[in-house]
Amino acid sequence: MAKKKTQKPVIIVDVAVEDYKKLSEFGFVHISDHSWAKESRNNNGFLLLLKKCDVNVQGQERIHEVVISVTRPVDNLESYFEYFATELQRDASKILAKTSEPPIFILNLMPFYLSITRMDRILKALFLGKLNIRDGLILLMVRNLDWVLKSSVFQDICTQQKLPLSFFVVDLRCYAKRFHKNQFSDFEIPQGTFQYLLDINKTRIYNSLVFGTNSHIGHYELANSHVRTHYDLREFIARDNVWEYLHKFFLSLVDEAETVLFIGTGIERDVIIRVGYQLQTLFGQRYVVTFEYLPPLTAAENIDTTLSRQNDAVIVFTDIVNSGNTLQPLVQKLVANNSEHKPIHIFTIAKMRNSPSEIEGIKLNAGLTIKRDYYTKRPDSCKLCQLGQPPVKVKEAEDFRQVLPGQLTPYDFWEIVTDSQALLRKQKDPQGRFFSFRIDTHRVVRRYGHWLRNVIAQRFAETWPNTRPEVICTVEEETGLTFASLVSEAIDVNKIVSIPRRDLRRVTPGGGLPQNTKNPFDGVSRVLLADDGINFGNTMSNLIMFCRAAGINPMGAIVLDSRLDQRATDGIRVQMSRSPLVALYEWPTRSSHL
To answer: What is the pLDDT, as a whole number, of residue 431?
Structure first.
């Protein structure tokens, strides 16, 4: 009888997302926690990666996903990874106890931007510490394998023969190095491998731009149009899945060309230049690539048309297209000087749904079509002008990042509420009170949290310009904690104290803290109250009373929306010794209409 083949255990190791913030304190910068595919598609991608590394896998290996979180207090990067190695050894031992086959470890550090010295500390903790996997194989995934190769600790590990039997390093540029039986070899893996490892779902990519970056909502007057929203592409294109998604578009446009001219132009100069350098890196091995950035208003004047004639294909790319009028003079000049009829392509990372489909007869290719319209330059055609919302004149990218004193305007607020499907009708709140209309804060923050952080930061800076709280205090309920966390991120205050509602109900004016209730503000002098919204003001009043019972007078309060009139608002402020009460949006409503 043939002996049954034993499956090799493949152990995929990731750093827990909740540890990212802890690691950032040691300069361990995370790029994105939204890029990597999950479950079976991810697993198939890792098996494919192993095969491309010429590792003998059958495609039926038992795959184990191990997510390591270090819960012990650590004060440096090396101690973090020492505990990380201990946790990994413990989890791996349980898996390996069930098999005699040597393991395959895949340690995924791709979500992080590291350095040679940081790699020193990681490798020292992993290979010179408690992790003992000498008989297996380790595949280390990093963004740049030079961090490993130039590490002095790595060189010591190689000299001391502390590496496992087989060790691979793979980076996002598809470069790879193999160390096997003290022999080193270089090779490359196909770019398409990462299509399996990354989440390149178009809906996820769209949400990454529209809701997952610092989109700036307001009223912006551009050279040729008015727009409602600008999308901050800097964070967007840094995500691995986004870049792979865009890379496929560029690859289809290059087609059979051997020499390619990429012309980048757009108001987001940093984004365009980053894309250009990425293109040079990815295409430089297969094509002769020239990249040139041209400022949008003078692009047609400054283009060197001899470059377009010297190359087999020209690709003009930009950040966002509204009317297309900015690109039109540049494209027109390229077309006029294209006597040999070489391919000219136009690509934009994003466009509005009413943007033109062609510019000068050339198809406008877009990575994403955003479900928003731009308005023409005529004020009578701009809905925002008709509503009287003041415009910000945009001459450079930083102008989009202005937050006007009037935000949130009614148009802003109700647009994000509608888009988030956050208006709840005839429902009870967590306290069991019935409301004709209520806002689901969690939905609003989930979709527009990145932009709301900008508004919170601006309003806080205006109201409390020379001070900062030590603690943010809220009620211990999902909606309150959701908004308090947003405030915490916006003003960079890490400590949040949440008070259970049962304790708030037990506090009385002039009394102390309820029996058996610990004072959460020992040693604290500045507390900022935060809540998702004020309907009647009872919760805010109870929070103020709790703070005063604990010996603290709040420095003020901030809420997403308030339905109090001016008299009721003044009443809340009086309880805080007239400290400010900031509502991002106010919609005073009589109690009979709540």
So the answer is: 66
Give per-residue pLDDT as tens, 485-511.
999 999 999 899 999 999 998 888 777
- Please check whether the two domains, 200-386 and 423-593, share a CATH topology: yes
Query: What's the chain's Rg over C-alpha atoms?
Result: 28
β-pairing, 259-264 vs 225-230, is unpaired
User: Beta-carbon neighbour count of residue 4 at 10 Å?
Assistant: 6
* Alpha-carbon gap, residue 156 to 160, rounded angstroms: 6
H helix runs in 286-440, sequence order: 299-302, 305-310, 328-336, 383-386, 410-419
Q: What is the DSSP letter of 36?
A: B
d(CA 298, CA 513): 67
Could you tell me the pTM of the whole model? 0.82
Residue 164 exposure: Cα atoms within 13 Å on the Cβ side: 23
The answer to whether the beta carbons of residues 108 and 54 sit under 8 Å apart is: no
CA geometry: angle at 180 spanning 175 and 185, to 5°?
35
Cα–Cα distance between 94 and 492 in angstroms, integer? 40
Domain ranges for the chain, please list them.
9-195, 200-386, 423-593
pLDDT in the model for residue 2: 45
CATH (one of 3.40.50.300, 3.30.450.20, 1.10.287.70, 3.40.50.2020) for 423-593:
3.40.50.2020
Per DSSP, the chain holds a count of helices (H) and strands (E) of 21, 26
CA-CA distance, 567 to 445, in Å (whole number)? Answer: 29
Burial, 592: exposed, middle or buried (Cβ in 10 Å; 0-12, 13-18, 19+)? exposed
594 by DSSP, 3-state: which?
coil
CA 579 to CA 577: how far, in whole Å?
A: 6
- Look-up: residue for tokens 């827990």? 16
Q: What is the pLDDT of residue 432?
A: 65
Question: Which is it for strands 358-359 and 362-370: parallel, antiparallel or unpaired?
Answer: antiparallel
Please choose, from the candidates 449, 521, 534, the residue with its C-alpha nearest in 3D space to the C-alpha of residue 489: 449
Give the chain's end-to-end CA distance (angstroms, integer).
78
CATH says 200-386 is which class?
alpha beta
Q: H-type helices in 53-182, by residue range?
A: 77-96, 116-127, 146-149, 152-159
Comparing 13-17, 168-172, 179-183, 451-455, the range with the smallest average pLDDT is: 179-183
Sheet holding 313-321, edge to edge: 288-293, 259-264, 313-321, 344-352, 362-370, 358-359
CA-CA distance, 95 to 536, in Å (whole number)?
A: 55
